[in-house]
Amino acid sequence: MSVGIDDISFYSSGMFLPLATLAEHNGEDPDKYRIGIGQNRMGVPAQDEDIVTLAANAARPLINDENREKITTVLFATESSIDQSKAAGVYVQRLLGLGSNCRVVELKQACYSATAALQMACGLVARKPSVQVLIVASDIARYGFDTPGEATQGCGAVAFIVKAEPRLLSVHAENGCYSEDVMDFWRPNYMDTALVDGKYSTIIYLKALRQSWKNYQEAGGLSFGELSRFCYHLPFTKMGEKAHRKLAVTNGETMDEARLEQQIGAGLHYNRQIGNSYSASLYIGLVSLLENDAEDLSGKHIGLFSYGSGCVGEFFSATVQPGYKTFSRRAAHIDMLETRQELDYEGYASLFSHTSPKDGGEHYFAEEAAGHFRLAGIHDHKRIYTEVGE
Ligand code: COA
Questions:
Q1: Which domain holds residue 63?
Q2: Taking all residues of the chain, what is their mean pLDDT, rounded to a whole number?
Q3: Average of per-residue pLDDT across 349-355
Q4: Ligand 1: residue whose CA is nearest its atom 41
Q5: 187 alpha carbon – ligand 1 mean position (Å)
Q6: Which residues contact 344 (CB under 8 A, 6 or more apart)?
Q7: What is the CATH number of the domain that holds 162?
């Protein structure tokens, strides 16, 4: 029986900052961000957007009367959690009107946890093929003003349904993992922005890639040449290029620009427009590949590398299913990205300076969110989510 991804959709905030605007303010050459880091824009959440609204907006197109009761598990992956106890997925379960006979849980391991969710979901479906699992990965990446990481901020959420005989992607059982206790990126509970040693993180990312690949090979995984396309965790898209060149060298292969573009290029488009979305980034890259690769990928094998600082890496593979293009949500995704509102530097600075109220008072937020769901306010420490216009 084949198990994997049956449907997938992503969402980012209704506002964005061009990185050329940030470069101008920071006195940097815009090409450093555009070429050196590989980013054009970053998603900036409005006051009434958070990881729950991003996630619910990403998942909404996937839910219908046919699968509403079949989804028996919701796995919410994030590293920008809004609560130490309650899983953010419980809000999503209500907002989407999912059945109440549903287990909901939140997973954390930096940018990696959606892959843990995918592997868990595959196990659940393999044991009981009638069930479906909804995975949502949602994050807001904040490094702070005037930090090296500032140009690699962003936000986004991805949602996908894992089931038996999937229409998009059959996930292979072979995988390779690597974990090591390192401090390349972390965010203590008392901080709103992440602490990161960016250069060290790049080195550890590549080490985790090599070790995960080795473990994947030991598990009987496909060879480098058998994989047609590759998706990588993308804290910034240049990282994907660095990673792919490294993997090629590890396998004694050469990687010129044309081959690099063919093997990973289509997977970078969306991330270049929204910035880092932490746990969602690998899977938004996957959507970008499936929707923007000019070739028909039916029957082709894809290699995926998931990385979460701290660190955990996992390399795994999947096969694209014939007819996958029929279920593409490309038009809606392009429309969502192109209708976002452009911010100037002051607008970005004002939104990113905003921190969630902590006093337990009654706070209501202006309606700015562009999606279907919004965070209307926080009252008595409780978040109030509504539909836009409600
Ligand atoms: N034109 C083209 N390229 C340029 C350039 C220009 N005018 N100016 C600089 N560059 C290149 C640099 O050569 C460098 O390329 P390289 O990495 O291939 O050597 C790149 O742009 C970045 O420049 P650098 O000076 O290294 O930038 P930085 O010190 O500001 O830091 C990051 C860049 C990515 C390390 C930083 O943004 C960061 O820490 N981001 C967070 C990363 C993260 O989230 N990691 C954890 C999760 S995996």
A1: 3-387
A2: 97
A3: 91
A4: 149
A5: 21
A6: 21
A7: 3.40.47.10
